[in-house]
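Quick illustration, no need to memorize.
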Amino acid sequence: MTVRNIAQAINDALDLALGKDEAVVVFGEDVGRTGGVFRVTDGLREQYGAERVIDSPVAESGIVGVGFGMAVGGLRPVLELQFMGFSYPAYDQIINHVARIRNRSRHRFSAPLVIRIPYGGGIGAAEHHSESMEAIYTHIPGLKVLVPSTPYDAKGLLLAAIEDPDPVVYLEPIRLYRAVKEDVPDEWYTLPIGAARVEREGDDVTLITWGAMTKETRQAADLLADEDISAEVIDLRSLVPLDLETLVESVGRTGRAVVIHEAPRTSGFGGEVVASVQEECLFSLASPILRVTGWDTVFPLKRSEHHYLPSASRIAAAARRTLES
């Protein structure tokens, strides 16, 4: 065991994967010489060489296009797109080629690649560096979408994604990279894709979230505990596939739920969670399922971030409203 933050856990996972399998390559902007914009790939080029940890041109469509060719040709590329706002030029490659190749080729080919995308606000960056648009990737058949929120999960989910025979979009919450540390096993281990984690058990209301918003959701649960309100906190970890069984068990028991994400409200993934849960739990619900989200605006600059991102107080207030019904 070694105490690691999320950035270090991801680096360790990549180190193990590169050392274990020569088919694994890391490819993207600045991943080599400078170790990535967040230094997540720091030291890997020196250890494995420039032919396996490869700096790409500033061309996201080209990164995914080349990575797709690598994957179909037998490699297992791990691509980095730096920021979610930079990933949009690659969307054509992802939706039309990466996600469809197994179906298009009638299973003769697959694309076992991982697309790492740092995402989210809270670090004082500009708009294209702070977006949280995970829903556009969950809508593509053929993709898995993972979002870790702890160092332990970050390593185990990334190694599972690298082993997976199909493409995985792996979203990394920027403001959590160095915000939390915990013991992480040094050896290779994987976590099941499609399994949520019940972070905190409770009886009165279920708080459902993922990624960076787990921090504020934990704080909200603490605020509610001070009022003798027992909140269950569920970290989805995997958006696609979604662990509906865990959600249904929890909400069916508490009868109340709040879904939290920092993406804009309209067509955010929270709407899918709400619809899926209420289809199964309608007769168990004591009040409507509520959402606490970002606003339907372009992500603001630094001075206004705190107005945009859901806060612990907003989450706790929504939980109280479910208890008033």
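The domain at 197-324 is CATH 3.40.50.920 (Rossmann fold).
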